[in-house]
Amino acid sequence: MTVLITGATGLIGARLLPRLLAHGVPCRALVRGDNAVPDGVDAVRGDLCDAGTLAAAVTGVGAIIHLAATFRTTDTDLIWKNNLEGSRNLIAATRVHAPGARFIMASTGWIYDDDAEHPGREDDPAAPTLDYPASKLAAENELRSSGLNWSILRLPFVYGEKDGHLESLTQLAPGRFHPAQRLSLVHHRDIAAAAALALEGTFDGRIVNIADEAPTSVYELVELVGGSMEPSSKPLTNPWHIQMDCSLARRLGFQPEVRTVHQAAQQDLL
After folding, report:
1. 74: region left, alpha or beta (phi > 0 left; psi from -120 to 50 alpha)
2. Which of 35, 184, 245, 254 has an alpha carbon 20 to 30 Å from 156's alpha carbon atom?
3. How far apart are CA 109 and CA 122, in angstroms?
4. Each residue of 94-126: pLDDT tens digit?
């Protein structure tokens, strides 16, 4: 079964794709321009926002892992164009050219409401106000109503394997996060494990939160990568913000190998 990966050269895709290849999974990647992919990958040049290029990408595949997304930009039109319109185009192409394919979409834990009264659960109502999670939620809804065989993996803060993401907190966190704010986290190794379960059909027809076992404070994370953050004992207004309840994933068989960010640090997996 050939698997199409979008976002194959991005933060997650560049680390997931080699793992799929190592497990003998035939892979195809939708790539823009001259972006390179590993040897053994069938590269199809195209763009999610150019619907005419997508038939060649999806034809003949048994599954799609849709990772491509735009975030961390002030260009809100681009966020919506890539995350919603691009997803809509890929879904439409799949319905026509690969209607039997399993469609796995990566989404985000930022969807859950800031003032949630518990860690975010898959069936919680959500009305995100930021463009990135709002566009991802809209894309989720497009997929859920598509008639395809779908699953959605909502991911928290992703890190590991020298991706630089944790290190970015030294610049992003001060002034934006309360130092006591805890983030749900997931290592690239465990995203691959979740993707494997999704490819087997374990998550078919479900939204599933994927995270490790220990939400960790922003203060600890910044210090872990050598940064510093002004401490504070002021009350935390929204204590469950960007934390995810992963009970469903555990019931379905997902168990993180990298259980905490501190384990990752000890094993040189950051």
Report:
1. alpha
2. 35
3. 9
4. 999 999 999 999 999 999 999 999 999 999 999
Domain boundary assignment for the chain: 3-156+187-211+246-256
Quote the CA–CA distance of 89 and 27 in Å, as a whole number: 20
85: DSSP letter = I
Looking from the CA of 169 toward its CB, the CA atoms found within 13 Å total: 28
**Cut 0.85: pTM above it:** yes
CA distance 254 to 211: 9
What is the distance, to the nearest Å, from the Cα of residue 107 to the centroid of all Cα atoms in its chain? 5
Task: Give the span between the Cα atoms of 155 and 157, in whole angstroms.
Answer: 7
Q: Enter the tokens of residue 228.
A: 């510093």
Q: Which two tokens stand for residue 171?
A: 């610049």
